[in-house]
Fold:
Amino acid sequence: EIVLTQSPDTLSLSPGERATLSCRTSQSVSSSSLAWYQQKPGQAPSLLVYGASSRATGVPDRFRGSGSGTDFILTISRLEPEDFAVYYCQQYGISPLTFGGGTKVEIK
Amino acid sequence: EVQLLESGGGLVQPGGSLRLSCVVSGLTFTNYAMNWVRQAPGKGLEWVSPSAPYSADSVEGRFTISRDNFKNTLYLQMNSLRVEDTAVYYCVKVASGGYYFDQWGQGILVTVSS
Structure:
């Protein structure tokens, strides 16, 4: 199965700062079949990005996904208070579907 | 508005069984694939796939996913439950454009403990 490694584990930043989250896959992911999710405490995850770079409906444009092959990035251009959460990547190019371990973005 | 509402969770002893249900509203249920994703306490997300050859060793032969299209309901039958199956189980809708999940239920807690 494809292993997804997210880094860093925790990102400590202030509101207004830029966040850069990494997701590396153990094999190349076909057709950029990579999604990102946001999970706030006590809530279900919600879809942010699919196809590596397409924002889901209603997702603000400060969220940007990029990358291909084995290296993917989620960038949050200017952190808003509601963006402090855990972020997961998921590959869906090859079964079994797998998730990364998550990156927590916390307030510094 | 799309809604996915799970039920059927709770406390069960090791070796026991439980069936989760997920009632879906706000969309044409028959048009979409549905799945389950689980999250152990304080841990990450895991796709629950009991179907070989994609099944995780952890659930193969013990879990079964089914659906009733007349009731707009997805089920997860869990047998021979283990302590490590303790998790929040999310019902998820598979997107039209790929096997990612664009709608999630609020989740239901399953605790396996003696």
User: Anything to note?
Assistant: Strands of chain B lie at 3-7, 10-12, 18-25, 34-39, 45-48, 63-68, 73-78, 87-94, 101-104, 108-112. DSSP finds no helices and ten strands in chain B. The two ends of chain B are 40 Å apart (CA to CA). The mean pLDDT of chain B is 92.
